[in-house]
């Protein structure tokens, strides 16, 4: 395929990044730019590339030999594994600059004089010095009173006014283009992308996400970022987001807030949603009661195999949670009636659909107590080769279940999402170090 010397940034997003031998390195997620203080066009410093491990790294534009319709090709297969970290004076094209409000000064477009326009894309091209610079800007006017989108215009960089570092700090920037890159992405990947953005931009994007989506994303953020996002929301919105979170994650977040702030949020939540969170907060966070989810997969003994399997197919359940179905006497909401036993997913798959789960109970599996320590929970999973285990109180009521993902969250260092073992210049398998700096 023919290489191109001009391309719009939005077309770069998602392209495969290939080494000289065609080996896959990752995919383009954004472009790092250096906005200048003079009228010279910004220079594209490098690509924000997402690896298969979800880590985002920086690849200098000097390493790019060609940009093709389906891939970005590098002159080396060696890349630094250091996490992308913007330096002063640098910005992300898609994450920060798109949706900015600007004005146009172009004698060929007098109808745009004085009108507020929004940046919808940036065109980059390679100049004679082999640098990639922003040469064109695609702009769109505000919507008409009938709700129709304004016409799109493509102008030269020199015709655009108001696109500076200080303007990016002003409130009220749109989020349409920024949100479009998150469509179809997993919550953990969206969380990674948000972490790279300045606080102001994170707040704008968070404000535009619906409660369910934002709750999923917040659960994947480090604790400091979680508390910052929740702390800057209006109380009612924060309560709505907490209601949409898994109770154990909501409890972990509230446990990081001052008691008065946490109580204020709990009082704004629906009582049915806050009750399980309050129960979790009553346990120490490093015990089974503090680790558990109060909403595992629970049925009665008269439930059919077919119905239990249908419940296990719920996409909102994690694979670990779906691995065990807990059988109790009514009520089935935690704390439940008497805990009778559990049924393993594999056992459900082996039995006739019309049979009842009460006939294939595993009553011998050991139970966790709510006050069991983190070490005891870890030994439990290692001993029984499980990824999910019941938490039962002294009276025999099922309180919830601990899953291995919750356990790992507490075994790893608190900052494990931010600091990875190879944050220094360690490298991908079989590759050498290359990156010294962003410029």
TrEMBL record:
One of its GO terms (molecular function) is magnesium ion transmembrane transporter activity. InterPro entries: CBS_dom, CBS_dom_sf, Mg_transptr_MgtE_intracell_dom, MgtE_N_sf, MgtE_transporter, PRC_barrel-like_sf, SH3_actinomycetes. Residues 415-439 are annotated as: Disordered. Gene3D superfamilies: CBS-domain, MgtE N-terminal domain-like. PROSITE patterns: CBS. The keyword Coiled coil does not apply. One of its GO terms (cellular component) is membrane. This is CBS domain-containing protein. Keywords: CBS domain. Residues 361-418 form the CBS domain. It comes from the Bacteria.
